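Quick one: structure for this chain?
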Amino acid sequence: MSTRRRRTTVNLEEWVPKTRLGKMIQEGRITSIEEIFTEGYQIREPQIVDALLPDIQEEVININLVQKQTDAGEKSRFKAIVAVGNKEGYIGLGSGKATQVRTAIEKAAIDARLNIVPVRRGCGSWECGCGRPHSVPFQVEGKCGGVRVVIIPGPRGLGLVAGEVAKVILGLAGIKDCWTRSYGSTRTIPSFAYAVFDALKKTYTLITPVDWVRH
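Got it. Here's what it folds into:
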């Protein structure tokens, strides 16, 4: 079962920060999400993302009915996978379970905000070389379960040569042109989605010669 919706909003007016990072943001000591990753803070409140990325968008990637055998019989719940991003270099992916679809989506949306990561964009295609942040700067590979996904830089105007799930996640991350190759059980949507997410995370964690100059 697959669908797409937008969006779950977190009420910032009623937000009372519980963490040190949340209090620093509310006091105005941190004004951008870049500072959070530069200083190595961990996001533990979803309101932090909504406060620093007010234009964040949300897409429901997948909803499944999962059943669990208990002493009282079978227990059925819905599991939702939700992606969030601002289409400008930030992407998050999360999951949530509940007896109602809406509650499962809300839980997944909160989890996605807590898992948000920066994505390094660039022009890694030898066919292009424009220097604009429309693709990935280099080839990256992500894995989850039995699924492996490779994202290859593409020239401007190519578009996203990928499956529907990958297109949604790449689009929310701000990637406009790339090729993708997938291996394994790609029909398993949750594993495929997390493999794409894992590849995008590696664009930021991998160190390049440019970073040596910065430091």
